[in-house]
Amino acid sequence: MTPASITRFSQLMLTSLALGAVQMVLNFDAQRQILARNPQTAGLGDGFLIVTLAFGFAITLLLWFLVARRASNIAKWILIALTALGLIWLPGTLRSASASGPLPLILALAIVALQLSAIGFLFRADARDWLEGKAPVDLQDFD
Q: Which of 23, 83, 89, 116 is the most core-located residue (most Cβ within 10 A)?
């Protein structure tokens, strides 16, 4: 059976992903303008932006799956490292989000709060034991 902390991690992480998808749509024009202003990225176009955003979304979804459904301790640490990088880039993210108005900014802050809360659940004893293989994993949870 999946530990309660992993279930809560899943709920928070998937909510942050859903809000991230909304934010991507709301912030798309601002991202497009940022690319257009930079001479090195001006010619890349919308396709590049869409692929980049989809790739980031897919990586986060894959890491969630590996942590929550496959009990991967390695994926946990990769997710933590990427979240730490996201915190380093947070000022730029907030600047970009605020260019589209207050809603994308609020969403960006909510997403960060949800992700940090989700990661916090990975350090609880039941999640730690499960991810380190010290707790039994019910394979029916993965069907």
A: 23
